[in-house]
Design goal:
single chain; about 200 residues; alpha/beta; Rossmann fold; 8-stranded mixed beta sheet; 8 strands; about 25% helix; about 20% strand
Amino acid sequence: MGAVVSLSTLLDERRVWRGRPAAVPAAGHPTGFAELDAALPSGGWPEAALSEILTQAEGTGELQLLWPTLKRLALAGERVVLIGPPHIPFAPAWQAAGINLACLSVVQASGSDALWAAEQCLRSGACGAVLCWPQQANDRVLRRLQVAAESGQTLGFAYRPIEEAINPSPAALRLTIETQPTQLRVLKCRGGLAPAHPIPFSVWH
């Protein structure tokens, strides 16, 4: 029988590789929806990252999903920027959600100009959150937005059609808003596995 050698001896002699502990996901920004926070590894929107929200149609609660977070940012004096929204924001609704309009900026742009503006705002570090509606954005474009969000330590949100779910994305978080019933489905989340079941979602939060 071979000699018995203690594990500590092997480690000291560097004869056994000691694996690194699994990285703990960075703390996120609470979404304001308890069930969604509980389903995400970071406990909320991933910090300094791009989150992709895929929708079946406009008006399914895609803005209300972000209002609790945007309200908290605005109360802290952070700038919230909307780049190329499909419609002019209805100011009374944003005010009713508790968002200070003095902290809200809207950039009217489209195509490559909108993507450029989104990247610059994300990278600047001067914004708390940047919402954009990229059109025909490929993996390379989304990766630039993701890197810009990391560089500027900014929350980035990209609204895209649900049909884009079949395409890969570098976004740290991808979720869909489904209707009939209205629910959220997490497709991808950094730091853990996406939950197998959908999450009930009511815009009347």
